[in-house]
Design a protein that fits this description.
The protein is mostly helical and 62 residues long. The protein has helices at 2-24, 30-50, 53-60. It starts with a helix and ends with a helix.
């Protein structure tokens, strides 16, 4: 009975590890990643310059 429990636990552990690896691996090319980063930086630049994001965040986290 203990061997069966051990086998089941090992199977579950391997499944969880495999799922996490698949979930956290990127499926994007280098160009897609670069484009995504530029979009995020442009968004942050606009928020900081025109919508006073810095001041708003400073009020939340003094």
């Amino acid at each position: 009975m203990q061997k069966l429990n051990l086998i089941v636990l090992i199977g579950i552990s391997i499944s969880i590890i495999w799922f996490n690896i698949k979930l956290h691996t990127q499926h994007f090319s280098k160009e897609e990643t670069k484009e995504d980063i530029l979009l995020q930086l442009n968004f942050l630049e606009n928020e900081l310059k025109y919508k006073h994001l810095g001041e708003d965040m400073q009020e939340l986290f003094p």
